[in-house]
Specification:
The protein is built from four helices and no strands. The protein has about 110 residues and is an all-alpha fold.
Length: about 110
């Protein structure tokens, strides 16, 4: 097990990660739009779009969590869960709408 970072090391790490976090934040609206578009296509019967929405939500959940955007990560995780192949037939449009609204709010709250 590694030793905890000293305050100086933690500050240096934060400075190093800040530009990456900022770049990710700027891309959040585009990632939201991609998920929204895939969900719209899925509602039109495109099963491949549903799988793609699931993959995008999964990726967003993990990356957002890594950069400290916890609300974005949680909201993307909800979309991921609702679009899982086993869950998708029972996922209602209302549940997906609510999850997408939560993701929109989280993205806005992240300053994107």
């Amino acid at each position: 097990m590694s030793e905890p970072l000293s305050p100086e090391e933690a500050a240096a790490l934060e400075r190093a990660i800040a530009p990456l976090r900022d770049a990710f934040r700027e891309k959040l609206p585009g990632r939201l739009a991609e998920i929204d578009a895939r969900l719209a296509a899925a509602r039109g019967g495109d099963r491949a779009a549903l799988a793609e929405a699931n993959r995008l939500a999964h990726t967003l959940k993990g990356t957002a969590g890594s950069y400290g955007f916890d609300a974005v990560s949680r909201a993307a995780g909800e979309i991921e869960a609702l679009t899982e192949p086993d869950a998708a037939p029972s996922a209602s449009d209302a549940a997906l709408d609510d999850a997408l609204a939560a993701l929109r709010d989280a993205v806005a709250g992240a300053g994107a």
